[in-house]
Design brief:
Blueprint (H helix, E strand, L loop, with lengths): L2 H13 L4 E5 L4 E5 L5 E5 L4 H9 L9 E4 L4 E4 L15 E2 L4 E7 L2 E6 L4 E6 L6 E2 L4 E5 L1
Antiparallel strand pairs: 1-2, 2-3, 4-11, 5-7, 5-10, 6-9, 7-8, 9-11
Length: 141
């Protein structure tokens, strides 16, 4: 995508009722967020493995287990309400289909369920944080 095409895309998104837009190819990841102040992010698309290699200088194996990723863009909530305990924490056993968290998107509360049985090894997101599509939320072993 060249610079002129990016400008046309920004204009189209700005003129529409979209609040955010993402475009990704093997070479480029483009994210546009509109609001009081529009934000444009364009980065080369890099896999998790490539990122680990670049940061550490050596090839690392991905962490053990399976990732539960966000199916949408929104706000992450670890518990059903502010004063309630989190659905799960590190060390908790989980079953396939069990609710792990909620992602709020466009005023809708979307339950995030585990895709597999196991134990919560890692929680990647804090309560109230914004999450992106495909962003890892939990690691289950």
């Amino acid at each position: 995508m060249n610079f002129e095409e990016m400008l046309r895309l920004i204009d189209k998104v700005s003129d529409s009722s979209l609040s955010s837009f993402e475009y990704e190819t093997e070479e480029l990841k483009l994210s546009i967020q509109c609001g009081e102040k529009a934000v444009l992010t364009a980065t080369p698309a890099v896999s998790e493995t490539e990122l680990r290699e670049n940061v550490s200088g050596k090839k690392e194996e991905p962490p053990e287990g399976k990732l539960v990723k966000s199916p949408l863009v929104g706000t992450f909530y670890a518990a059903p309400s502010q004063d309630a305990a989190p659905y799960v924490k590190v060390g908790d056993p989980v079953k396939k289909g069990q609710v792990l968290a909620i992602v709020e998107a466009m005023k809708l509360m979307n339950e995030i369920e585990s895709d597999f049985d196991g134990t919560v090894a890692e929680v990647y997101v804090k309560n109230g944080e914004s999450v992106e599509y495909g962003m890892p939320l939990f690691r289950i072993v």
